[in-house]
From TrEMBL:
EC number: 3.1.26.4
Cofactor binding, per record: Manganese or magnesium. Binds 1 divalent metal ion per monomer in the absence of substrate. May bind a second metal ion after substrate binding.
Species of provenance: Candidatus Kerfeldbacteria bacterium RIFCSPHIGHO2_02_FULL_42_14
PANTHER family documented for this protein: RIBONUCLEASE H2 SUBUNIT A, RIBONUCLEASE HII
Residues forming coiled coils: none
Gene that specifies this protein: rnhB
Cofactor(s) the protein requires to work: Mg(2+); Mn(2+)
Keyword DNA repair: no
Family that this chain belongs to: Belongs to the RNase HII family.
One record GO biological process: mismatch repair
Protein name: Ribonuclease HII
SUPFAM superfamilies named in the record: Ribonuclease H-like (SSF53098)
Keywords for the protein's UniProt record, in alphabetical order: Cytoplasm, Endonuclease, Hydrolase, Manganese, Metal-binding, Nuclease
Positions bound to a divalent metal cation: D23, E24, D115
Length: 199
């Protein structure tokens, strides 16, 4: 299913020019950062094949990442480390990365669509459950966030090859759990997430 641009078009018709979509990735991972992206796309051209990053393979995501980056009026990525997640909690980190992704854009969005449950933000916007599956700008942000985080996890794999981060990207797969049991956690692991994992 391809997300529609229906919500964005409603605001474009009212004279808005800068409408952002925001999404995060990595909330449930055992290791690595939580990453959010904000993307401001023009009304036209409407990019084809934009959809939730989870429904795309790595090659499709990389291709669309380049297209989005080329066409976007503005885009930004913000991340918070495992250490910060442990110190402040995942709910705080989830909200903070989305706020920072929006506020670090080089232009100020007039309205923002945010993936997830309703939250209070200081900027004008609307939270939409499953927004990455249904809202065009959020789906674009999900692709930027996912490709960016995957690159970070591949970088981590150079420093900590024993965990195979390049394969599971820090999520709790059987391979990752086995490597954790064998080697113990490293600096990229979220210690607060590891209860009952290393058994």
């Amino acid at each position: 299913m391809h997300p529609r641009q229906q919500l964005e078009n409603k605001f474009f018709k009212q004279g808005y020019q800068y409408i952002a979509g925001v999404d995060e990735v990595g909330r449930g991972a055992l290791a690595g950062p939580i990453v959010a992206a904000a993307v401001v796309l023009p009304r036209t051209p409407r990019l084809r094949n934009i959809r939730d990053s989870k429904s795309l393979n790595p090659q499709q995501r990389e291709h669309l990442y380049k297209r989005i980056a080329r066409v976007a009026l503005a885009w930004s990525v913000y991340s918070l480390s495992a250490t910060t997640i442990d110190a402040r909690g995942i709910s705080w980190a989830n909200r903070e990365v989305m706020i920072q992704a929006v506020t670090t854009l080089h232009l100020i969005p007039e309205f923002t669509f945010i993936d997830g449950l309703d939250q209070k933000f200081t900027f004008p916007g609307q939270s939409i459950v499953d927004g990455d599956q249904n809202v065009y700008s959020i789906a674009a942000a999900s692709i930027i966030a996912k490709v960016s985080r995957d690159a970070m996890m591949r970088m981590a794999s150079y420093h900590y090859p024993q965990y195979a981060f390049e394969q599971h990207k820090g999520y709790g797969t059987l391979l990752h759990r086995r490597r954790l049991k064998q080697h113990g956690p490293c600096l990229w692991h979220r210690r607060s997430f590891l209860t009952n994992v290393m058994v």
